[in-house]
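Before the break, one more example. Copy the sequence into your notebook; we will annotate it together after we see the structure.
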Amino acid sequence: MDWLSWQWVTTPGDFTQGSSIMPQKRNPVVLEHLVSYAGAAAADAASVLNNVGAAWWEDSNNATTDVQVRLWESNDRAERFFALVGGFLAEVEPLSPPSREEIVASGATTTAAADALTRHGVPFRAAHSVVGRLVRAGGPDTWTAEGVRAAAEGLTGPLDDAAVADLIAAAVRPDLVLNRAQVDGPGAAAVRAQVGTLRVAFEGVADRLAAVRDRLRRADDALDAVAAELVAR
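Here is what the structure looks like once it is written out:
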């Protein structure tokens, strides 16, 4: 929803509807329903957990029969949720990706700026505090060498010209965010690695689900065969 508001992406026509008062407006109704689905799923989970937690150590209806409806409905809702998400992601298209200036103004480059100081021997905690002072004083595009040195007073030792220059340069280079090598970070390589890990995990889940479905199918076939045999007698 934020990406739509910032005009980074455009909403697929199949997932929108017109406004009742502004004909030119496109409302992302499917995304709004997905938010509702998520809220309802959380409520279902709370209902099930509360009842199971209140159960006695016996065959208790409040932990068995009474929770089944919530489980059935949440499973159905989850299936619909992921079907809609999959359809949406298959059709969504970029609209106006943020400019360099917008990315810098958002503060997304500040961690890279702190990293620049750490490469000059400044502990990351101190580097983070220096950058925090700079952010409170103004956007990264406004940082100067004098301002960096003033922000570092009391937090680090004297900063040499190279450290100051590297910090200022990093603060206005969004590409350094994509190049960040930290595991599970926002860098392109790290994100691709995480996606690869998730794909492997999902493939394992899919294989187990396929095995369960096959076992259920064979059980149904066996039950049908016994029923047919009994009827034939």
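Residues 100-177 form one domain. The longest helix spans residues 188-232. Try to locate both features in your own notes.
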